[in-house]
């Protein structure tokens, strides 16, 4: 009883010390390059910061924006903890923006996580002159441990054991992304401890990163906090992308409605540690235990070797219809049983239908382990799509990139041919960009990130992968969006494999979608990486305008954009939802789009050049010429004129 009383007195004094450090916890971290305090950057930051307290509330607790022109352009991100009070959230952001401007008067980069407990909210304010949206940032770190430790007694090991269990529970809950919530990476836990007061723990990541990045960030954050600080009585640690705090009392108002977690059972300590006991009560010596372990290990090893041999034989030759895929690259493809696929999709229930493709239907499925999948079921028994099926299995087994959809496996039983992919929750790009309501969600920052992601996926296909792949059917419906709106190029059924030194080929089998096919491919069957560049250019213009290419009857979007370009009115092409975005930034991408749809394939840029232009404000971009046209003649008052004559006429006006 006396020990418990002394522990309570000790923890109470520690609590007072923690309360005294709260103002230190909210210190701003200033870093990066220095600048003149009276510069345009300061003015842009001040102007942008003034809008953030209201914007974060009206946008659900998370908001990112930018203002100004490079190199004085300011990017900002603000975030409140889930369950925030609107007034408290706005006040927290306003306070932190003021602290940042005062403390980081001459520094470009800054961030501050935290909040005052009496305001019952925590928030983040971050700024830079470089776009950081969607990037995991683990530097610089901030750490504020409580200055005192939990009583350094024999109970410390028990405390740390239960503390680690609480960390794991909180981290697991925080990284289960809830796509329905803007503040998706968040967890607050109150845990009972066996011989100590309850522990309160909070973890949060910025919602623009992936769940895997969030898990890494929080894990590194806890590791950084624990370094040289075992058994402290509370504290916090943060990186620009995540925040971790724990204490012996509820803080930031995060624990009003939290579920309480009971203490784990205290481990029983054996008095005799030299023996174990079997079911009959006979003591077993360690020599016998070691012998049992050796035998079991040997048995498991034999089973493991057998499994490897079976899969090795299966992996060396995968039969798909009449084709054979050699696994010379030592790749392994999982073959699904039809029963597993039927169970996952509820017998291909119409309620699970995600969409209809050119060669079959796509369904959502859930495996017995809870993992979600997308299942493409080719049209049964028709033979249609056989080539596409074999092509996709052959290629995607050897392609791995964050901007390419991942093929998990396939199934062939009877007349069923099925492909199993990772499930991408936000469907395809066309469901957003061509929908008047959903398009509102595609801010310019999100659209730019999608455009850049598609470009990076194509650079990988054309230049960086072990294979050289031409997609041949690039369009918005073949771009899938994950939970964080990152793009993934999909549908490789019509893709063409090139030799590494091959630059161009010809085919009599024209595959793709009219309006997105390059003229030399559509008319002469000539295939090259520049065929995909053309398709990318059309899709880029669709992303900017919010209009389908075929909405411009007779001429197409590329021609419409070119007319506005030579008239000096390219802003007419821009989607009305992007009116608040600096038009010169979007016009640069219109210029890139027009370069990609040049009629002469040699005049089109490579995708690696596109990536360079997207990431630079200073590298000059060539002036585009007339694009390839979707009609051959343009009717004038005097009769007919060729399209080149029309644009020569327009250019001279």
UniProtKB/TrEMBL annotation:
<keyword id="KW-0418">Kinase</keyword>
<dbReference type="InterPro" id="IPR000719">
    <property type="entry name" value="Prot_kinase_dom"/>
</dbReference>
<keyword id="KW-0547">Nucleotide-binding</keyword>
<dbReference type="GO" id="GO:0005524">
    <property type="term" value="F:ATP binding"/>
</dbReference>
<keyword id="KW-0808">Transferase</keyword>
<protein>
    <submittedName>
        <fullName>Cysteine-rich receptor-like protein kinase 40</fullName>
    </submittedName>
</protein>
<dbReference type="InterPro" id="IPR038408">
    <property type="entry name" value="GNK2_sf"/>
</dbReference>
<feature type="binding site">
    <location>
        <position position="376"/>
    </location>
    <ligand>
        <name>ATP</name>
    </ligand>
</feature>
<dbReference type="InterPro" id="IPR011009">
    <property type="entry name" value="Kinase-like_dom_sf"/>
</dbReference>
<keyword id="KW-0723">Serine/threonine-protein kinase</keyword>
<feature type="domain" description="Protein kinase">
    <location>
        <begin position="348"/>
        <end position="619"/>
    </location>
</feature>
<dbReference type="Pfam" id="PF07714">
    <property type="entry name" value="PK_Tyr_Ser-Thr"/>
</dbReference>
<dbReference type="InterPro" id="IPR017441">
    <property type="entry name" value="Protein_kinase_ATP_BS"/>
</dbReference>
<keyword id="KW-0812">Transmembrane</keyword>
<dbReference type="InterPro" id="IPR008271">
    <property type="entry name" value="Ser/Thr_kinase_AS"/>
</dbReference>
<keyword id="KW-0067">ATP-binding</keyword>
<keyword id="KW-0597">Phosphoprotein</keyword>
<keyword id="KW-0677">Repeat</keyword>
<feature type="domain" description="Gnk2-homologous">
    <location>
        <begin position="23"/>
        <end position="132"/>
    </location>
</feature>
<dbReference type="GO" id="GO:0016020">
    <property type="term" value="C:membrane"/>
</dbReference>
<feature type="signal peptide">
    <location>
        <begin position="1"/>
        <end position="27"/>
    </location>
</feature>
<dbReference type="GO" id="GO:0004674">
    <property type="term" value="F:protein serine/threonine kinase activity"/>
</dbReference>
<dbReference type="GO" id="GO:0009737">
    <property type="term" value="P:response to abscisic acid"/>
</dbReference>
<keyword id="KW-0675">Receptor</keyword>
<dbReference type="Pfam" id="PF01657">
    <property type="entry name" value="Stress-antifung"/>
</dbReference>
<keyword id="KW-0325">Glycoprotein</keyword>
<keyword id="KW-0732">Signal</keyword>
<feature type="domain" description="Gnk2-homologous">
    <location>
        <begin position="144"/>
        <end position="251"/>
    </location>
</feature>
<dbReference type="InterPro" id="IPR002902">
    <property type="entry name" value="GNK2"/>
</dbReference>
<dbReference type="InterPro" id="IPR001245">
    <property type="entry name" value="Ser-Thr/Tyr_kinase_cat_dom"/>
</dbReference>
<feature type="transmembrane region" description="Helical">
    <location>
        <begin position="289"/>
        <end position="312"/>
    </location>
</feature>
<keyword id="KW-0472">Membrane</keyword>
<keyword id="KW-1133">Transmembrane helix</keyword>
